[in-house]
Amino acid sequence: MFQIGKTIVSEEILENDFVCNLNACKGACCVGGEYGAPLEDSETDKLVNVYQDVKPYLRPEGIKTIEEQGAFVKGEDGEWETPLVNNNECAYVVFSEDGIAKCGLEAAYEDGVTKWKKPISCHLYPVRTREYSEFTAVNYHKWEICDPACSLGKELKVPIYKFVKDALIRKFGKAWYNELEEVAKGNPK
């Protein structure tokens, strides 16, 4: 672990490789698991505000779930998260013709319909953050469904922190990321 500003960062994000391999996993992180995507408090309003613009991108099952449960829900841990369709996939998930789970929020963003890409927890994955009173923890979340991403990352020699560069900058800023890169230079695998 090392510190950058008010963050405590796991060296695992420097030492492990990762590149999403959607052809192998089919977007399983958006479908598997017992909980929706974690949301920051500020993102709950964003979900409500973009819903009508994003709605045309969503599946009927997702729309029904959101309209019954709300744009976001409180999870068992007391934190905000996206609602799930039948306790399975995220309500904002759409599927490509070849069965790959993708994000309806991100599709609307890419088409210029909204200015908000998706929850930061999704953008950062496999990095997870946790807020504490004095600092933010920045960790690598290992999940066996991402084994193909680890293999592809190793093959392409892309460390996690580089794979999620844009998301880390979105979350912590360019100066923070530059400092992370300096730490990485001094931390050979």
From TrEMBL:
<dbReference type="InterPro" id="IPR021458">
    <property type="entry name" value="Rv0495c"/>
</dbReference>
<protein>
    <submittedName>
        <fullName>DUF3109 family protein</fullName>
    </submittedName>
</protein>
<comment type="similarity">
    <text>Belongs to the Rv0495c family.</text>
</comment>
<dbReference type="Pfam" id="PF11307">
    <property type="entry name" value="DUF3109"/>
</dbReference>
